[in-house]
């Protein structure tokens, strides 16, 4: 928790309030749309690429176990989608889910009660990736996975470089690592860098970090770019609605952003970025492109 001045209210990251984070994320999800498509179409496109690659990494036999890891899996919408497609290919699936937000993890557990997939064995980890990494270090050897997904979660890692190295290292040979991250041209990619990370607790704000990371190491990856738009209506209103306020909190990662005693200039920059992104258009939608980065573990290669 960061304090601005001695007599001010504390400035709290939404990551420090599970309930508030879930509400903000709910509004963000409601207001984001894939351009000209329904919200699940991006999943179909990504699965068309990763599905065969993941099956190849496990091997030809169908009587084997797929080992999958979800990092920052939230309520598991994406992980469940992938599993619903993988479950017909494998005799068994072992899925480890790392999610520190207990409310979201509970929601995920509720959701899967309905699916009742007998071939899936879940390993719930209500902890951060950093805590999981510590545990693996202590054991000296972790489970290796055929498929690791980190869907919009790398932003929250305290040391993203170490996290990338670790996740790559947890892959089986030919295993697949999938990251989803907002592009630097997206609404959060443009607003995020203006919020000091001591307030937002976000170390990175876009896919730029991961793209540069793999480029400088010569690690090949497939990049899928999907165009989304974000309905930011109400965010520039003087008398802001509760919903618009939650969306601003999600974009800045600061709880009660409008009221928080942030240093001068920060709020003005956020609002002028939004105004600039809206331009003269009558619509209240900003662009929010997503990058999906697919990396395949090369033979015996380490990133360190
Ligand atoms: C933007 S949400 C995305 C959730 C989900 N993957 C989805 O796309 O619907 C980011 C998720 O990362 C989780 N998270 C935050 N810090 C984390 C950390 N240090 N390690 C792992 N997950 C974290 C949050 O609790 C949240 O569920």
Helix percent band: 25-40%
What order do the SSEs take from the amino end to the carboxyl end, as H and E? Answer: EEHEHEHEHEHEHEHHHEEHHEE
- In spatial order, strands of the major sheet run 6-5-4-7-8-12-9
Structural class: alpha/beta
Give the CATH topology. Rossmann fold
Would you report the number of β strands? 12
Q: What is the count of helical runs?
A: 11
Oligomer: single chain
Distance between the termini: 32 Å
Give the C-level CATH assignment. Alpha Beta
Outline the biggest β-sheet: 7 strands, mixed
Rounded to the nearest angstrom, the radius of gyration is 20 Å
Spans of at least 5 consecutive residues whose pLDDT stays below 50 are: none
Q: How many domain units?
A: 1
CATH architecture group name = 3-Layer(aba) Sandwich
Distinct ligand kinds: S-adenosylmethionine
Summed over residues and divided by their number, the pLDDT gives a mean of 92
Determine the CATH superfamily.
Answer: Vaccinia Virus protein VP39
Share of residues in strands: 15-25%
Question: Would you summarize the structure shown here?
Answer:
The chain has a single domain, classed as Vaccinia Virus protein VP39 (Rossmann fold), CATH 3.40.50. 39% of the residues lie in helices and 22% in strands.
Describe the structure.
This protein has helices spanning 18-31, 41-58, 77-86, 102-115, 129-139, 160-169, 187-191, 197-200, 208-216, 242-252, 266-278; strands spanning 2-3, 10-11, 32-34, 65-71, 92-98, 120-125, 145-151, 171-182, 221-226, 228-231, 285-287, 290-296. The strands form 3 sheets. It has a 7-stranded mixed sheet, sandwiched between helices. The longest helix has 18 residues, at 41-58. Helix 2 (41-58) packs across helix 3 (77-86). It has a single domain (2-296), classed as Vaccinia Virus protein VP39 (Rossmann fold). By secondary structure, it is α/β, with parallel strands linked by helices. The mean pLDDT is 92. S-adenosylmethionine binds next to helix 3 and helix 5.
């Amino acid at each position: 928790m960061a304090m601005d001045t001695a007599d001010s209210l504390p400035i709290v990251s939404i990551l420090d309030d599970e309930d508030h984070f879930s509400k903000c994320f709910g509004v963000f999800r409601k207001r984001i749309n894939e351009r000209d498509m329904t919200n699940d179409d991006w999943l179909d496109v990504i699965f068309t690429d990763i599905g065969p690659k993941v099956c190849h990494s496990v091997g030809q036999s169908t009587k084997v176990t797929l080992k999958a890891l979800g990092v920052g899996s939230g309520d598991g919408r994406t992980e469940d989608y992938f599993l619903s497609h993988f479950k017909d290919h494998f005799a068994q699936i072992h899925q480890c889910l790392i999610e520190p937000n207990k409310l979201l993890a509970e929601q995920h557990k509720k959701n899967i009660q309905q699916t009742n997939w007998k071939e899936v064995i879940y390993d719930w980890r209500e902890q951060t990736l950093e805590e999981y990494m510590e545990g693996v270090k202590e054991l000296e050897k972790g489970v290796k996975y055929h498929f690791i997904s980190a869907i919009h979660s790398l932003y929250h890692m305290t040391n993203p470089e170490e996290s990338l190295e670790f996740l790559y290292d947890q892959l089986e040979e030919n295993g697949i690592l999938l990251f989803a991250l907002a592009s630097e041209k997206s609404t959060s990619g443009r607003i995020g860098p203006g919020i000091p990370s001591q307030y937002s607790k976000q170390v990175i704000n876009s896919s730029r970090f991961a793209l540069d990371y793999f480029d400088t190491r010569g690690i090949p990856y497939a990049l899928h770019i999907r165009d989304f738009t974000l309905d930011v209506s109400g965010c520039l209103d003087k008398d802001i609605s509760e919903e618009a306020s939650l969306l601003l909190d999600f974009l800045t990662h600061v709880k009660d952003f409008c009221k928080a005693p942030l240093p001068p200039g920060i709020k003005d920059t956020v609002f002028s970025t939004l105004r600039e992104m809206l331009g003269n258009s009558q619509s209240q939608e900003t662009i929010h492109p997503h990058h999906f980065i697919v990396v395949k573990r090369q033979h015996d290669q380490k990133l360190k």
